[in-house]
Amino acid sequence: MTTERARAAVSEETAATAGGRIDALWAAKMRRLRERPLPEHTLRLCDDEQVRQESVLAEQAAERARYLADAQPDDEELSRRLADLLRAHEAAQKRLADASVSLTFRALPRPVLEEVITAHPPTEAQAAEGAAFNPDTFPATLIAASSVDGMNETEAGELLTSWSASDANALWEAAWQVQQIARAEVSTSSVGKG
Fold it and tell me: CA 29 to CA 10: how far, in whole Å?
């Protein structure tokens, strides 16, 4: 075997080995991509204003104490105060969770979302105003389709029409916003110097 042919054979073997490693790396990457869960978003509803306010105040107090304790790490009194306020915050969060109803929504796969949107085309007047879907019929369908809790379209429609505008909008936005959650980051790099 000539030197040139031997080099070519080694080069082909190296390329095949490298290609095998690249294929395995790609297969592992695709497996991870396929296993990614769809984004979820939870809407918490609490009608007890006092419990909500206590939770906010406990969180603010704990954050202030954390800031002070971080600034003076050798101060034992600040550390004790922080520990006390963190326990109070945890207790306030538990009271808030106990007084709340949570509704969880999961993003739909893109083709499913497009199908739901297509099933609710805007009226001519709505389309003239730039609407991509019928805002009178689409929200209840999307809420039901993305509900992890099992809310159906009739129930979603009932809540949208019986709740205050603010709460109904929060319900709609929770189901719509989960469809918009971006978990991708695009980075750019430049090669060489300009």
Answer: 28
Q: Decide: 107 and 40 in contact? Cβ < 8 Å.
A: yes
Check: CB of residue 179 under 8 Å from CB of residue 146.
yes
Between 171 and 182, where is the model more confident? 171
Burial of 66 (C-beta count, 10 Å sphere; 0-12/13-18/19+) = middle
Q: pLDDT category, 9, cuts 50, 70, 90?
A: low
State mean pLDDT over 107-136. Answer: 96
Exposure on the CB side of residue 71, measured as CA atoms within 13 A: 6
- SS3 call for 152: coil
Mean pLDDT of the chain: 90
Beta-bridge partners for 112: none
pLDDT at res. 18 = 61
- Helix orientation angle between 49-71 and 76-99, rounded to the nearest 10 degrees: 160
Q: Which of 35, 13, 37, 33 is nearest to 25 (CA)?
A: 33
DSSP 62-112: HHHHHHHHHH-TT-HHHHHHHHHHHHHHHHHHHHHHHHEEEEEEEPPPHHH
Beta-bridge partner residues of 46: 100
